[in-house]
Amino acid sequence: MAFEEIKVRSYDGNIDRAGVEQLERRCEIGPSQHVFLFTDTMGDPISRIRNTPLYIMLVAELNHELIGAIQGSIKVVTMKDLAKVGYILGLRVAPPHRRKGIGSTLVRHLEEWFIGNQVDYAYMATEKDNDASVNLFVNKLRYIKFRTPAILVHPVKSRPLKMLSRIEIFKISEENAEYLYRRFMGLTEFFPADIDKVLRNKLSLGTWVACEQGERDRFGQNGNLPTNWAMLSVWNSGGLFKLRIGKAPVSCLVYSKVSRAVDKFAFACFNMPRLLRDLFEPFGFYFLYGVHQEGPGSGRMVRALCKYVHNMARVGGSDCKMVVTEVGSYDERVRPHIPHWRLLSCQEDLWCIKPMKSGSVNELTRIPQTKPLFVDPREV
Q: What pLDDT does residue 263 have?
């Protein structure tokens, strides 16, 4: 196939929606060997980038057939200094047309759009064991492996988790949340300059703080904060798209039937995940972002906040079946206190980065990750 036969252009919702949705159904998402997740964009193929400051979707056509797509977004974040970064996601190539250079063609067109918008760095995320993606970006397109954060997944269970009575949890205003984030996480890698817009987005359900019992009334007075406290914000990713499990192994089918039987007879000793009751129904999830803690005893407050959100997800909608977060590999202070299932989690996601302007990214990659990583919920 000659590259000249391929036409790359901007996505047009009026004519491309059905073709992109069909392409999504043909492309499996997740680690190639053991995760069986598909996305349901609920009729809006650009839902995952629609809330970012600037975005684009490109499609590839061959003989009037839509055979590939890619999405990109642009924002300003904290790196060594403030930088404009472009995020690459949603690269899809129809199975019959893979290994023909279509993926690299789409990425290069997106990079041209980044350069035209004065982007300093382009970056992308993939699974560490996704050989095809790593080969394309690292070996062919000269992206450099940059960070390996962990994606932690906790299924929502049928009954609430027990909370510690000596920890108080309360919701704070968007203004106070912005102040705390800029004060304590403003220098965090990839911290978004427009954190105010993230917090005020309709998909952001709010920000909660945990502290010792009796310290709530004094929290933040005259700028003072208690010795131990923690905070996080919640994003309703299910308001943008749903996830669906497909091609599950026989063991999953058996587990699903057993869990339904347990749920039917309501055995008190079981607290089964909702996900296993209707295994193949589309479901939503809450994403925890801006997880932060202060003080030597604040780890249990992080855990309490995660349990609180789990219980909130139980009553927030029957289709919310997971609570998910992503934390940097360095951040061992907060990571051990986030409840998760290892079976569903990804211990090493892979972020790769490439400079879009003259210069080198080597200085950034040589710097060890000595501070937390901020994962923008708009890019989940």
A: 52
Region for 142 from its dihedrals, namely left if φ exceeds 0, alpha if ψ lies in -120 to 50, beta otherwise:
left
Residue 16 DSSP SS3? helix
- Which residues, other chains included, contact 9 with Cβ-Cβ below 8 Å and sequence gap of 6+? 58, 59, 61
Q: Taking the C-alpha atoms of 105, 106, 110 and 112 in order, what is their torsion angle to the nearest 10 degrees?
A: 20
Strands (E), the chain: 6-10, 37-40, 54-62, 65-78, 82-93, 121-127, 144-147, 150-155, 167-172, 204-212, 229-236, 242-245, 284-294, 320-327, 349-355
Please list the residues that pair with 170 across neighbouring strands: 209
Task: Give exposure, 252-273, as e/b (b: 16+ Cβ within 10 Å).
Answer: eeebbeebeebeeeeeeeeebb
For 128-135, what is the mean pLDDT?
Answer: 90
Place of tokens 């009334």: 217
pLDDT surpasses 90 at 333: no
pLDDT at 328: 85
Q: Rounded to an integer, what distance in angstroms lies between the CA atom of residue 10 and that of residue 70? A: 10
The answer to whether the CB of 351 falls within 8 A of the CB of 379 is no
pTM beyond 0.85: the answer is yes
Contact 284, 237 (CB under 8 A): yes
